[in-house]
Amino acid sequence: MAKVSMVERELKRQKLVAQYATKRAALKEIANDDTKPMEERFKARLKLAKLPRNSSPSRLHNRCQLTGRPKAYYRKLKMSRIMLRDLASMGQIPGMVKSSW
Q: Helix axis angle, 4-31 relative to 38-50, nearest 10°?
């Protein structure tokens, strides 16, 4: 089980990313537009740098919804391999059977 503080930190990051998404996209559009003057593009880059670090989508990390584990995460199922195996062993995932050969 992951520390509660780490899970809460990740939730805080998700809220910040959603909050600043439009502002960040607008500033990036200005900064990457070659038709605009260099000074305006530079000012957009400075404004972009002043936004909170945690509002960047690249700082998000997927976590298991059941345990908060950050590693061995399956995106399609939104859970870690350990919880997937536990739930499959208990028969709580329809269609999934334990393999044996």
A: 170
Domains present along the chain, CATH in parentheses = 1-61 (1.10.287.1480), 65-96 (no CATH)
Distance, in Å, from the CA atom of 28 to the CA atom of 34, rounded to the nearest integer, reads 12
Tokens encoding 95: 């269609």
What confidence tens digit (pLDDT) does each residue in 46-99 have? Answer: 999 999 999 999 999 999 999 999 999 999 999 999 999 999 989 899 988 877
CA-to-CA distance for 43 and 18, rounded, in angstroms?
23
What single string gives the DSSP state of each residue in 27-44? HHHHHT-TTS-HHHHHHH
